[in-house]
Amino acid sequence: MRISVIGCGYLGAVHAACMAELGHDVVGLDVDETKVALLAQGRPSFHEPGFPELLARHVGTRRLRFTTDPTEIRDAEIHFIGVGTPQLQGRLGADMTYVRQAVATIVEHAAPPAEGRPVLVAGKSTVPVGTAEEIAEALASSGKNLMLAWNPEFLREGYAVADTLHPDRLVYGLPEDLERGAVAKEILDECYARPLATGTPLVVANYPTAELVKVAANSFLATKISFINAMAELCDATGGDVTRLAEAIGYDDRIGSKFLQAGIGFGGGCLPKDIRAFMARAGELGVDEALTFLREVDAINLRRRDHAVTLAEEAVGGRLAGRKVAVLGITFKPDTDDLRDSPALDIAGRLWSRGAELAVVDPAAGDLLRRRQPELNVHDSIEDAIRDAHVVMVLTQWKEFVELDPAALVALPATPNVVDGRNVLDPRRWSNAGWRYFGMGRGVSV
Ligand code: NAD
């Protein structure tokens, strides 16, 4: 099929490359010239495992192209919308400017046949419920033979390629009209023929359900993380160990063991802004009481950052000013360079504003951080960052940090304090090697 993807960020660029991998002829459109220039040469504009290979392969065969010229989308049979929906400045709601612009671009430049099978617009961005209905009306009033489906995206950064090629489910939000719904489904089925053939579960729903599935899933995940972080607060108050607690409750398969890792909390370009936009939308719909629990989820999450700063202060004996803090990991999770709403970055910034001298290492986001916040002192080697530090903080669970040998490093810092912001280090091993270990919800420090 001929496909266009509007918006080539973490979601759109991977989606475009994966659609090419599925055999389609794809054009990715973005307004960011620098990003497009890189992608068009087959060079990734962000860190994502497996993406560079796909990109190089399909840009090389011209099955995948990137452009800033909207006229190049005219022949597509499906236009995917993958533009950003960030949090509005100073408000909880989502900024829908980019989605509106993307729809306007499609309406202006798509060239569907006047009769016969319509061209499909498929929304992938995460949007407030009700958006699809509005877009469907805009498409209907365009006078062009365009039809809308809502097809939310569940990929995880760090696993984005596998999640797109082998999704754990596909969700289609289709027009209520049965005949039109069947046509939209036929087009999406053709697009996703390969994952469907290998048994990917498909959930077909109406527009609002499809929009809600995405924010409901993210709200559930955020709630699970904040739940275990609330238990971490209780463990700290009582001498319990939240890692053992999580293990024990996780054996109950009604609860499950995933997403029960206490630490400095969730971040990134999705979970925080999605739960906030969901609350804002519930307010507009007059059902804000249904989601008041998400306020608590957000508050618990943000308290984790305060707690990490407090632990750093405790480790250095109270005053951070003039103390050196080594921060290992600055992205919101491993295997990405995404710094959006990263708890690690927020914590590093707070430590710096209290007068601490920072030394940051990150396997993927070092160069990006060096350009954006040179005051945080990015280092290329873990040893250089740790040397003469008063406290070392592991804030992202990159494999490189999880596998550190505490005995080999203990002579480097000025004082061997380690704050394990992700509960990924073995407290006994680190304390036996001579470190003072501070965990998140593991009772007293060892
Ligand atoms: P992003 O900021 O990385 O990418 C958005 C891209 O859209 C940018 O490159 C921007 O230049 C481009 N853009 C903005 N306006 C445009 C326009 N009018 N025409 C063409 N391009 C335009 O954001 P992202 O992380 O890729 O997220 C995109 C959407 O997908 C969001 O709604 C997000 O919530 C959702 N989502 C993201 C993920 C993820 O893991 N990143 C997962 C699922 C869903």
UniProtKB/TrEMBL annotation:
The keyword Nucleotidyltransferase does not apply. Substrate binds at F154, L155, R156, E157, K214, F259, L260, Q261, A262, G263, G267, K333. It is an enzyme of class 1 (oxidoreductase). One of its GO terms (molecular function) is UDP-glucose 6-dehydrogenase activity. GO terms for biological process: polysaccharide biosynthetic process; UDP-glucuronate biosynthetic process. Its EC number is 1.1.1.22. This is UDP-glucose 6-dehydrogenase. It comes from Tessaracoccus lapidicaptus. The lineage of its organism: Bacteria, Bacillati, Actinomycetota, Actinomycetes, Propionibacteriales.
